Amino acid sequence: CELTNRLTELKSELEDLEQKELILDQQRCWIEQSIRNTTEDCSNLTYVKHEDICNCFCGHTLLAVRAPSGTQLDVPIPKAVLNSPTKYQIYMKSIRGPIDVLLLNKH
Amino acid sequence: AGCLTPNSYTYRINSSPSKELSDINRMIRQGCV
Amino acid sequence: AQECQNLEVERQRRLERIKQKQSQLQELILQQIAFKNLVQRNRQSEQQANRPPPPNSIIHLPFIIVNTSKKTVIDCSISNDKFEYLFNFDSMFEIHDDIEVLKRMGMACGLEVGKCSPEDLKVARSLVPKALEPYVIEMAKGPISNVYITGG
Questions:
Q1: Model pTM?
Q2: Where would you find this protein in the cell (chain A) (predicted)?
Q3: Is A50 on the interface with C (CB under 8 A)?
């Protein structure tokens, strides 16, 4: 009897969870559409100023990278080399258009 | 395309989730292998 | 008993999937609020200044930021067509996307850390589709970790 009750409970809960997942998928579609509308309708207003970025990362050297969607960044795992500073690398490769890099140095 | 350089983490602009950037930053902070 | 066992496994799997989808939905809601706040701020600034900012003083989304100490020596190689860049740093760096910058600018109303004032919550609720408002209210209290049931 206990197992039968548990079975009934589980089946009911799985139905609820299935319903919940469908609602989540629907809500994701709504918000993605809403984001597309915002970025397309107001494309001339989706920008930040250099000072906005500099204020977020005080005292740092900043590289702002604008590149086509899908541009690939590869960051190799740093290797320690005896008696010389560890090298850190970023390799960027675009297939759809040029990459623009801006050096932001508030100081 | 797979990784462009061996033993590296990959992120695609405006496509990969932000979490992949957090993974890269953590890997850099943990420093050398 | 075997069937119970199978359904328990399926239930756990579904719960994990729902939590992941919920986390992704929260991130998208944050993005939407941040984008709309940014657009409103820029629109107001342009109206006050009566002109758009100089093109060489702004960066359009999407972008990423690489930040490193100001002592870091950066060596950069660029292909002729600017399709490939290789950066060498002699010190650590961090990479952040534009959403992270918008959050640091306060454009997500503090929802990303669950610290949202009543006024900011009111603004944030007005920036998302009505059906998603319950999420925003819940996010204002802190990241939603359990399965949160909203209306249909």
A1: 0.86
A2: Nucleus
A3: yes
